[in-house]
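Record type: monomer structure entry
Structure origin: computed from sequence
Chain ID: A
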Amino acid sequence: MKKIAVALWVVTVSAFVFYSVRGNLSISADEHYAIQLDAEEKDFVLAEMKSLLLSINGILKGLHEDDMIAISKAAKSADMGMAVNASPLLMVKLPLEFKMLGMGLHKDFDKLSADTQAGINKDQIIHRLSELTSKYVSCHQVYRLSTDLKD
């Protein structure tokens, strides 16, 4: 009986690890990896993406107005604290690379906020923003969110 319980536990843990790394993926008609989510999960991820874009917009506005405090605040609004609201079930559905890109972006915003407060200059901020948006774009080149298995 113990062997069956251990075997079931190993299978369950293995499946969890597999899906935590792979996520819930299919290939979409446009050759992107389609992450299969329910409508509420998709809305959550899209709202987070929108918040990241709003932060980028705030940083650009702060650069235009030469307002380092506004830049720091805009970057802080997309920091790691933003990522804590995701449900564990959603996190299992997201592939590891997608999670790593997302968490990396939040960490980059954290660092940009702190470094802006520490006195980096506008050229350094622009360079960091370029690196940050490159990650954002690379994610959109590979993935799409889907609520339809045919998508």
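Annotation 1: The chain has one domain: 2-146.
Annotation 2: The first strand starts at residue 25 and ends at 27.
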